[in-house]
């Protein structure tokens, strides 16, 4: 975030700077706009990861039944991955790498669903994963674009 926008949001110790910040609105750079958009989505996806991971870890048999992949141990491992990724996203000021980790995890989930013993529930689960993958990709690309614009 630029010094100009920081002073507009956080205040400033100098009266002249405060008056200048109050007289004209802070305009965000393209990098800041991308970061703001991506950060709101990333926080939501971080909380989603924590919730999904908890369900996968603590109720793997239910996830196995609903997904068509009858191997609860796989879902517990996926749950641990989701929890770690969610914590990484929520604890990072710039979670670009963590968002790409979510995209990679989505690819692993789709590959797992492709080996399902029950194909019908797996198709429904795969559609849900694809929907979340789209959001993960959008967010990861926005962070990556923001990172590039700041360089």
How much strand content do the residues show? under 5%
Straight-line distance between termini? 13 Å
Rounded average pLDDT: 84
Shape call: elongated
Helix content: over 70%
Indicate the low-confidence ranges by residue numbers: 1-25
Spatial extent as radius of gyration? 20 Å
Structural class: mainly alpha
Number of helices: 7
Number of domains: 1
Total E-strand runs: 0
In short, what is this structure?
The protein has 7 helices and no strands.
Helices and strands in order, then pairings?
Blueprint: H1 3-10, H2 15-23, H3 30-58, H4 60-67, H5 72-91, H6 96-114, H7 119-150
Helix pairs in contact: 3-5, 3-7, 4-5, 5-6, 6-7
What does this structure look like?
With 151 residues, the protein is mainly alpha-helical. The protein has one domain. It has helices spanning 3-10, 15-23, 30-58, 60-67, 72-91, 96-114, 119-150. Helix 5 runs antiparallel to helix 6 (96-114). The longest helix is centred in the C-terminal third of the chain and has 32 residues, at 119-150. The radius of gyration is 20 Å and the shape is elongated. The two termini are 13 Å apart. The relative contact order is 0.14. Residues 1-25 have low confidence and may be disordered.
Output the keywords.
151 residues; mainly alpha; 7 helices; elongated
